[in-house]
Write the C-alpha cells for this entry.
Amino acid sequence: MNPAEADDGYAGAVPGAPAGPLLRPQSLLLAFLGDHILQKGPLCVYSGSVIDVLGRVGIGEQAVRSTLTRMVNRGLLRRQRHGRRMYFGLTPHATRILHDGHARVWRTGAVNDDWNGSWTLLSFSLPEDWKRQRHALRSRLAWAGFGPLYSGLWIAPGDVDVSEIVAELGIAAHVKIFHARADTTTDIDVMIRDTWDLETIAARYTAFERRWITHVGDRSGDPLSTHLRLVAEWLGTIRTDPRLPARHLPADWPARSAEELFRRVADRTSEAAHRVSADLLETAPLASA
C-alpha cells in the first residue's frame, strides 16, 4: 500500500488494544482485504460483513459506509449487487497495491542484509502546474525506497524497477533513470544520513515495539481485532522505511527487533483471526468487469 492511498477518517479506541496511532478506516480495511481476501481469488464481500469486521476495531457503521464509498470513488473497490445486498470487490489497482504490501510485509522484510552495492537514481523535471503528478510521484518513490538526494534527484538502494510508476503517472518524457555504484570518495554513511531522516524512521520502530511487546504472550481479547490492528500498524511503520543497507545503519537499528516482535504476535493471532473471519465473512464470486 502506498502513502497516496490513505484516507482521512480515523478509528475509535478499542478496549484492550495497545495505545498507539489512530488507524484510518481505509488502512484497516485494506489490511483486512490483503490478509483475508487477496489470496482466495476474485471475491467480493458483503457490506454487512465489512461493517462487522471493522466494528471490532472501533469503527462505526456510518464511517465504514463512507469509507467504502470513498474507496469506490478512488478506484480501489467496485460495487456488485446480489439481490438486495451490496458487495464490494477489489479493483485491479487495489489488487496490485495489496500484492505489493503483502510482499513487503511477509517476504521482503524490514532489514536489508543483502544489498549488492548498487543504487537507482531518478531525475525528474515536471511542468510547474503538475502539482498532483509531483505529489503522486514523490509518494510512490518514497514507498519504493527512494529519498531526495537533491531537488529533482531521488536515490534508492539496489536495482529498483520504477517503470510501472512512471508509466502510470504518464511522466516518461520528464524522467531519467540510472543504475550506478558510488565512487570510493563518496561517504555512503553521510549520504544516507543527509538523505533520510534516520531518527524518525528508528523512532517509529521503537514506538511499535513498545506498544506491542506486552501482546507477545497475551491470549485475551479478540484475535481478529488484534491481528488486524497489528498488520495495519506494521504497514504504517514500514511504509516510510526505504530499507537502507544494514551495513550503513547504526548497530542498534531497531527494525530487526521490531520485525521479530511483529512476526511473533502475528504467528500467535493469525490462525484464530482467520477462523473468526471465516465465520463473519459473506462472500460471492467477483464478476468480470
User: Anything to note?
Assistant: The first strand starts at residue 43 and ends at 46. Confidence is low (pLDDT under 50) at residues 1-19.
